[in-house]
Every structure is written in structure tokens, then in C-alpha cells.
Write a structure and sequence with these properties.
126 residues
Length: 126
């Protein structure tokens, strides 16, 4: 099996993740597994149901992510990937966008795709 291009994989993942987040947050469940962990603004959450419950309970219904940068690195012997994202988060009805950073540690699945093993999200305050 040929090695996938990490930059192409991370770009495709980021596009899929944020378009799903912006339109159908429940649909993110398929990207996580029971061992997955989300740290959202310092709060650690583990497992698919808990992560999706957190993401769907955020105090806004509509938002749009605008991605500024995507950096990735191969991670470890298991062919994982670290993906670091920065950008702006525009909430419906808000004049000013919020700046955010998010880091994903993607791990391969036996089916040849990736799942989110670690996910760390922070708003960046000026």
C-alpha cells in the first residue's frame, strides 16, 4: 500500500470536519471512537457520545469556520498524523469573528481512513 500524502489527507480531513461541524454537528460522531478525547477550552471529554453531546450543546446553533492555516506532521510508527488548524469562527448574529486554534491527532482505521484520537480546541483571545 502506498503512503498517503499527509498534507492532502489533512486538508481533506479539515474540510470535511468543519463543513460537517457547521452544518450537522451530530455527523461528527463517525470521526471519533470510544478512546477518543476532546479537550474543549480546558475541559476533557472522552468517548463518542460524550464528545458529540458537548459539541451539540454549544450555546450557538449556526456558525461558519474560516480556516487560515493547516499544518500537519506524520506521527509515530502507527502512521498517525498531527493536524494543527487556526482560523476564525463566525457565529450567527455576531459582528466579530472569534479566533480559534485546534489540534487533531488522527489515527488510521483498519478500513484505510482516519479517526480523531485527540482533539484540542481553544479560542484565542487578543
Amino acid at each position: 500500500m502506498s503512503q498517503m500524502d499527509p498534507d492532502a489527507v489533512s486538508k481533506a480531513f479539515v474540510e470535511h470536519y468543519y463543513s460537517t461541524f457547521d452544518t450537522n454537528r451530530v455527523g461528527l460522531a463517525g470521526l471519533y471512537q470510544e478512546a477518543s478525547m476532546l479537550t474543549f477550552e480546558g475541559q476533557k471529554i472522552q468517548g463518542v457520545q460524550s464528545i458529540v453531546a458537548k459539541l451539540t450543546s454549544l450555546p450557538f446553533q449556526q456558525c461558519k469556520h474560516h480556516i487560515s492555516t493547516v499544518d500537519c506532521q506524520p506521527s509515530g510508527p502507527a502512521s498517525g498524523m498531527l493536524v494543527f488548524v487556526s482560523g476564525n469562527l463566525q457565529l450567527a448574529g455576531e459582528e466579530h469573528a472569534l479566533k480559534f486554534s485546534q489540534m487533531f491527532h488522527l489515527m488510521p482505521t483498519p478500513q484505510g481512513s482516519f479517526y480523531v484520537f485527540n482533539d484540542i480546541f481553544r479560542l484565542n483571545y487578543a
